[in-house]
Design brief:
6-stranded parallel beta sheet, alpha/beta, elongated
């Protein structure tokens, strides 16, 4: 079977990693799966034209019900959709988008949600048959670059490397997008850094999109300028450029803790990757994060900057707590986010497209 997989493919993002992994699952079953960036298409008619070219595609998948799924409305082959997170958590609040997503979900052969909570939200806000929504957590696999240099990473991020081994690096993994809210902790962290200069916050993630012609542009130009200006004048907070997945995992493994400050998440791969790497997690208490971060068991949750500071201080002073979070986080990922179950689920769902 020849399948089209549409997703938002900004380099070095969680969406890109998820799409590549799902394509691998599909191709391991003997199918052909062509991955395309949803941003490269202006209309569903363009995708319909692509689908019909010889040799034609026999089915399609989309990651994100609105941004990618809406492009499948005019195709004449069966398709499935995978919720991205912001589609169900944020886009449903916009009536025009919600109507489009309802049409996509009604036409789709199946839908996949990363969590039970996301499935319940879809049932609540969208007209859908819940029987077609399957829950499949993200599969996680980490690999650390052997060539990664921690000192070089810190220096390139603007830190003094004289106290490299003493620094406690809080690593906030996110692109410069409003939904990731990278400035949420800046003020409280900067004040804390002034009290103890060894505590630093490093924001790492993609800032740019690349067009088909290779032209680079900021993901959110206005917001990126705002973030860069704030960080430049804020003590203890630094911006690191995006790295390859293996380099990012190496940086995560060397940091003190991985931080999440998002307003909305479907399922944060960075949180799960940190658990798999044996790094404690400090995550904002939102539904997508609370689905995988069980407070004081697999990680720590906070609901305000002040509570973030409190939980951070606990992590610094309570060695037993830190060890428990690391141990339980690793076990949780192994038990609930293995690649084997994810592979079986997507291969089985693709078979339903074949029988459509």
């Amino acid at each position: 079977m020849k399948l089209l997989l549409l997703a938002c493919l900004s380099p070095k993002t969680g969406n890109n990693t998820t799409a590549e992994r799902i394509r691998s699952h599909i191709e391991s079953a003997g199918h052909t799966c062509e991955l395309r960036d949803a941003a490269a298409f202006q209309s569903s008619a363009e995708v319909a034209d692509l689908i019909s070219r010889h040799p034609p595609f026999e089915g399609a998948l989309a990651i994100h019900l609105f941004r990618a799924g809406s492009l499948l409305l005019d195709i004449q082959v069966p398709f499935g959709v995978i919720f991205g997170g912001t589609d169900i958590n944020e886009d449903v609040k916009v009536e025009q988008k919600r109507v489009v997503m309802e049409r996509v979900l009604l036409k789709a052969r199946f839908a996949v949600a990363f969590t039970d909570k996301l499935k319940e939200e879809a049932k609540l806000f969208l007209l859908s048959q819940s029987c077609k929504i399957y829950v499949q957590p993200q599969g996680i696999q980490t690999e650390v670059s052997e060539k990664f240099c921690w000192t070089e990473f810190l220096r390139s991020s603007g830190l003094s490397v004289e106290l490299t081994h003493e620094l406690r690096v809080f690593l906030l993994v996110c692109g410069l997008r409003r939904v990731k809210d990278p400035l949420y902790l800046v003020d409280v962290f900067s004040e804390w850094h002034r009290e103890n200069p060894l505590n630093v916050l490093v924001v790492i993630g993609p800032r740019y999109l690349f067009s088909n012609s290779g032209v680079r542009q900021k993901i959110d130009p206005v917001f990126s300028v705002e973030v860069e200006a704030v960080v430049k004048k804020t003590a203890g907070v630094f911006l690191a450029g995006a790295r390859s997945q293996r380099e990012l995992h190496a940086a995560m493994k060397r940091c003190f803790t991985v931080v999440n400050s998002s307003v909305s998440e479907g399922m944060s791969a960075a949180i799960l990757e940190a658990m798999d790497l044996g790094v404690p997690v400090l995550a904002r208490d939102i539904p997508g994060n609370a689905a995988v971060v069980h407070h004081e068991s697999t990680g720590l949750l906070y609901s305000s900057p002040q509570e973030f500071l409190h939980q951070s201080q606990r992590l610094l002073s309570d060695r037993e707590l830190r060890e428990r979070l690391v141990r339980n986080g690793k076990v949780y990922v192994e038990e609930h986010h293995g690649l084997g179950q994810e592979r079986e689920t997507y291969q089985r769902l693709v078979d339903t497209l074949l029988s459509a």
